[in-house]
What we know:
The complex is a heterodimer of chains A (about 500) and B (about 325).
Chain A: E1 7-18, E2 21-32, E3 35-40, H1 47-54, E4 62-67, E5 70-71, H2 77-83, E6 85-88, H3 100-105, E7 111-112, E8 115-116, H4 118-130, H5 147-161, E9 165-169, H6 177-192, E10 196-200, H7 204-210, E11 213-218, E12 221-227, H8 233-241, E13 262-271, E14 275-283, E15 287-292, H9 298-306, E16 313-318, E17 321-322, H10 328-333, E18 336-339, H11 343-347, H12 354-366, H13 374-387, H14 404-417, E19 422-426, H15 434-449, E20 453-457, H16 461-467, E21 470-475, E22 478-484, H17 490-498
Parallel strand pairs in A: 3-10, 3-11, 6-9, 9-10, 15-20, 15-21, 18-19, 19-20
Antiparallel strand pairs in A: 1-2, 1-4, 4-5, 7-8, 11-12, 13-14, 13-16, 16-17, 21-22
Chain B: H1 6-25, H2 32-41, H3 43-57, H4 65-82, H5 87-111, H6 116-134, E1 139-140, H7 144-151, E2 153-155, E3 161-163, H8 164-182, H9 184-194, H10 196-201, H11 206-232, E4 234-235, H12 243-253, H13 265-285, H14 291-321
Antiparallel strand pairs in B: 1-4, 2-3
Amino acid sequence: MQPVNSYVLSATGIDKIFPGARALNGVDFSLRRGEVHALLGENGAGKSTLVKCLTGAYRRDGGRILLDGADIDPQSTLEAQNLGIGTVYQEVNLLPNLTVAENLFLGRQPKRFGLIDTREMNRRARALLAEYELDIDVTAELAAYSVAVQQVVAIARAVDLSGKVLILDEPTASLDAHEVAMLFRIVRRLRERGLGIVFITHFLEQVYDLSDRITVLRNGQLVGTRETADLPRRDLIAMMLGRELVEEVATEHAAKAADGEVRFRFRGFGRKGHIEPFDLDVRAGEVVGIAGLLGSGRTETAEILFGAERADSGTAETSGRALDLSSPRAAIREKFGFCPEDRKVDGIVGDLSVRENIALALQARRGWARPISRAEQDRLADQYIKALDIRTSDREKPIKLLSGGNQQKAILARWLATNPDFLILDEPTRGIDVGAHAEIIRLIESLCEKGMSLIVISSELEELVAYSHRVIVLRDRAHVAELVGEEVTTAGIVEAIAASAGRADA
Amino acid sequence: MNPRYFPLAATIAIFIVAYAVCIGQYPNMLSTRVIGNLLTDNAFLGIAAVGMTFVILSGGIDLSIGAVIAFTGVFLAVLLEKTSIHPLVAFALALAITTAFGALMGAIIHHLEMPPFIVTLAGMFLARGMAFVLSIDSIPIKHPFYATLKGIYYKLPGGGRITFIGGLMLVVFAAGILIAHRTRFGANVYALGGGAPTARLMGVPIGRTTILIYALSGFLAGLSGIVFSLYTSAGYSLATVGVELDAIAAVVIGGTLLTGGSGFVAGTLVGILIQGLIQTYITFDGSLSSWWTKILIGLLLFAFILLQKGLIHLTDRRRRHA
């Protein structure tokens, strides 16, 4: 073990309480000099809350932070920066309208005779960036450069200002493989210079590629800190998902592989920087589950299938006819439906009534020139409120007053009203109570019995196993495995997510 | 060429082409007299537009300057008529008031997190109202010092004159260019225009900068009011209605992005000169309605907004393929 004073930053017992939620519960985190420390966890695990407490963006409610052995209590990111903790965010926090040099030296420009010495500033900027193998025109606006270059400029600024701790919050999320390699070279060099680097990412390949140690958070609590070399990938995933591989629930897997003919055929379907091209066949009456860690490309797959993001490669066809999926409108015309993950943001229109929310998609498909009559709307709303057992006092109640599960059912009703052939459900059971959970699952099963094709995305593995005929596993924005029939088990899915074989890039 | 210079280059090209067209039709327009008059006639607008440039670069807007110019004129006229203080003292007083007025608006915008549009709109009504309180009549200024100032000029070869106020405008533009590009305050103004939350994260003192920007605009509006009173030798509370809009037009035609963060003070000078040139052309023509000035300015504004949109699109595309 290294001596205690090799820690540049150590936080002990950090608490952070938000109204109604305990975001961090006694979390310990320590960072050595000259190490890359990966901070991992699913969404809502508390990674960003912890980082914000360290950088002064949030005030912590308990615990100590020691920097170089001295207590610190930063009140703002600026103060943390001056103390030596620099942060680089996923979306570059620099000013695109200023030149590269101005961005590097804003607020500390070299002066001569009381005026900014632009030539000196540009010279210093070039010298600074030369250390990062970046030979660019520092007098050009930052906006003229790619995100990767901007990211490096942001790192250069943060290191130049702070110099002890560098926090990289998902720096690689919008970079391609080549750019990631360049970024990693730079990070390794900074590690050699003795900086403590915190690295937050969803890409496990990158964690194993770069980091020395890993800390995993879950539900605001510390799960553990391990040496990367001693932590097999499947153990790491178990730490993150909180499911011990041994205690796999032997869910009765009623669904046999559907053997009907292929109704929808996607070939080489993909979008650069979004999801790598994939092949996918969906049969009538089949439920295809999509599993993967957050950021693995699950929602991206859904968006591209529904035309919310336009595919830039590949073909889609149904019974020999090409499908037009260039926009959600086109997809709706092709009888596609999509219940997005965050229904508060993407799904419900809170102030409209249950009836209006249900009629929305059907109306959109018909076009505004052919309004659905009020009687027809009433009939539709009543039919689905009854069929899906949506608990509402009446159909004119604003949908925001309903519980989460009932909102979810109303959105389902919206798409069912369009009578789709192909329905995509993104996290249909997130944030709803257990009873509604079971109802949604029953609903999914009855829909596929009626011959509808469904794509269901979920992080609840047991749930996926329960209703999926097949499960597609995603990793690093690519479809990496397909489990059929007997293979569809929670252990099988975790194994597939963890498997590193067969993929060279990272 | 660096794309950030495109709008400025376009403005200068338009000015040169427009001037060439004017000369082609009226060769007399190529004289130092015309140039001298161009500067003198637009001095007050130019000075106010420098302040407006800073405000717009920071992503804000100042609707109060026309009213502040009128207030300054009435204030000076009343003070010089009713008291015996020297005009220089009156100038200092007027500048102190308008600067404080601008700073106050800046403080409200920053501390109460109010949109600049609303705050300066209120400021506009307030300043115009104060001018009416002082006097509703047009008051002539007959102080001999005014005559002295108006008598100062630099004679150009060819009979043209750079008058005191024309020269003052050039000095203000020079100072404005220096402040914008060679001081930390100037860099902070651009930073604010690029995005206030990011600028804050990068350590820009948002509050101080905002207050200074509107104080500077107030100061320059006051100076513009002094120049206007020298130009007309009177103070009238109904004068300079809508000058803020002319100033905004000059700033935008000068290549500054209305959303802030990009542009040049020098461009505003060219914007002023283009407006002045159109007016001069109409005077030379004699048969055209003076409303043609507005129509042409309107068309130019549209053209520039389209140009800016196109540029943003272009840089976006470039970045994506970088």
